Amino acid sequence: MNKKGGIDTETLVKLILVMLVVIAVVGFVLFQVSPTLKSRTETEIIGTLQKFGFKPQVDLTNSRAVAIYRTGAPRNILAYAGFELSDWTEPGPFAFSGTSGIALATADSDDDGEQEIMAVYRTQNSGEKSQLAYNFWDGVWSDRISVEDGDPKTDFTDGISLTAADTDGDGVKEFWLAYRRFNSIVTMDYASGFTGEPWGKIQKQNIRVANFAALPDNVNRKDIALVAANVDGDPSDEIFLFYRIKPLLQIQGEIYYTIYNGGKWSKPILLDFTNFDESGLVAVSGNLTDPGQETVMVIYGKNDQMWYSVWDRAKAFTNVKRVKELDGPLEGLDSNLAATAGDFGNDGLDEVFLIYKQDKFWSELADTTDGTCGNPLDRPNHVFRIYDNGTWGNKTVVTCASAADVAVVAGQFDSDANDEALVLTRKSFSENDVRIYWRLYNNNTISNRTLLTKDALSGIALTYIPVKEEAS
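Below the sequence we write its predicted structure tokens.
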């Protein structure tokens, strides 16, 4: 205080400094505890997750596969981990506020001899609208880049599919993306703009989902499958896109496909009639019928059964067949199919590993690596089958009391000559105890389950990372 009763300059400065410190401390506390604070960036949020055991960036140098999965603790994030032949790396935080819509693919897209990883997913932005975004791995993960922000008319769903293809015959694969938006399907490729530029400034291709109009919300929310293969023997790959819709003025749903070849998509072609409220649609490619020629197989749910068709030399999907007669129904929109193709027998032909969830009313007593599924509460089950040279093998029960999510990828996961399949399944022990386990299928047997993570929400994606010898 000065002689006139006022505050001298030195005291005023001290008071201001104290006030600033108090404001900073209060602000820091609010910043840490408020989950709705809009000014907090995703990078800062992920930075605080280290106390939960997540590393900011996990080294994937020695990984043969990478998985992204949704976890509830902490804060509903997407986490990732790499598979190093015998075990997984520690998890790292991938994205904040993720959903179950996740897609992954791997390719040497810049022709530098190293594999890059593309991850596309649906999340929530600060305005609580749905957002489609991607991160790109090239030694480290990039920051999140928006593909497109949602609005009431173009909201995005879990229908996201991603593949890698050499569509121009230059020997370099590009990443291709397909996703559902309103009553259309949008496709785009990395070469056209996976560069961080706003997606509105690059060329997209909106596919009219049929030769006639579809109801605005009747492109099935999950059933989109994108796969690449060189089916005609020329230098470039073709891309097959499959989807399920319900046309106007029709009761049943339909599955269509379209093919990208020569720089354009073909007109949609009807594959089969189905019930619209069924789900389950996957597609794989490989040397399924001829060691020297790639082809495509599509598998889908129809009339409570699983059906499939293989692209033949007549350039068409013919002879749509049931996988097996009495497998029982899928479980509505919660059922996921997952499939991969690899040379599991080392005979020059690729086999298909198909894993799916049985309906609880059709799941029978079975001995599994989890024990005996004898209690009705232990059902439904995860089961798998192998397709080998035109024939589906018997089913094998993998998991009792399974949740819907499954993921599988084929690759070289040990030192022998044949391929193996890396399998992820989600298992429910109780409403608040859901876990993800992994297994390896090798030499006609599947290993016991090993825990990958606890507190797993819906959403799993998995991709293989070829070693340099394979990639070349």
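The domain at 55-471 is CATH 2.120.10.70 (Neuraminidase).
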